[in-house]
Amino acid sequence: MAAQLLSGRGIANQIREEMAAEVSRFAQECGRVPSLAVVRAGEDAASVSYTRMLIRTCEQVGIAFEPHILPADVPEEKLISLVRELSASESVDGIIVQEPLPEGCNAEAVIAALDPVKDVDGVHPSNAGRLFQGVGNYYVPATPAGGMELLERYGIPVKGKRAVVVGRSNVVGRPMAMLLLHRHATVTICHSRTENLAEECRRAEILVAATGKPKLITGDMVSPGVVVVDFGVNFLDGQMVGDVDFDSVAEKASWITPVPGGTGPMTNVMLMRNVLMAARARQARAETK
Question: Which of 70, 90, 230, 259 has the fewest beta carbons closer than 10 A?
């Protein structure tokens, strides 16, 4: 069996065009463009690279970008004060606080300073709780949202399927599990202390890898016909690889995301969708005052 690719590049391009049209419509109706503020402490290479990608994507869809770059040793109180200031700002619709935070900084305190309506990363307890319950309006972290969008756009059935999520982080594994559950999959969450991981993986009809461990999932750990969504971004000998050993797993899977080019391209465009959602929410709130 030769797996078909769940390629994110073409889908991301489609969504980017859709977002550009929707942002343009919002600007015409409301007299302003949606805006995204990004807070970063220091010059961590991965964070700097992500900022550049965000700037490019914002430009492509017409969203205003507002960077706030602080020293790597910025005091926690100053970081929290900036987040509160942006949360109260009338010129900002969405806010992202990039990691890593300064050493010793209380991440929970920084996140708590966010206005949940502007938390387009979906990290505030209010948004995480609503996602868990599946009620009300909330923001889904962009990476798992992109994974679900790929399944949707490729017509992969989720309802009633056995889904195994390997990884339990608050930004990928857990929200992905909740999204699958909301779509009526039967979900198992595995992690570093799961016994007989291979046996659990072989039960999956949909297998999600989000561990940060290169090529952890191998061909002998999956069943024929499985759909594989790999969120891993790792580097081995200068080459980007996923959490799945692509070559061996692709021989048995029916569908699989490549790395790179699978879930990665989806993240930024799904974030843009959250920013537009935040802008609409703030506009509606302003019109009712």
Answer: 90
| Token pair belonging to 167 | 């990884």
At residue 9's C-alpha, the angle toward residues 98 and 138, to 5°, is 45
pLDDT tens track for 54-97:
999 999 999 999 999 999 999 999 999 999 999 999 999 999 99
pLDDT digits (tens, 9 = 90+) for 222-240: 999 999 999 999 988 889 9
Q: How far apart are the C-alpha atoms of 262 and 285, rounded to whole Å?
A: 36
Model pTM above 0.85 = yes
Q: Are 254 and 227 spatial neighbours (Cβ–Cβ below 8 Å)?
A: yes
pLDDT tens digits for range 113-171? 999 999 999 999 999 999 999 999 999 999 999 999 999 999 999 999 999 999 999 99
Residues 39, 48: Cα–Cα separation, whole Å: 11
Domains of the chain: 30-115 (3.40.50.10860), 142-265 (3.40.50.720)
Residues 251 and 278 sit within 8 Å (Cβ to Cβ): no
Residue 193 contacts by C-beta under 8 Å, 6 or more apart in sequence? none
Neighbours of 173 (CB within 10 A): 22
| Average pLDDT over every residue of 192-219 | 97
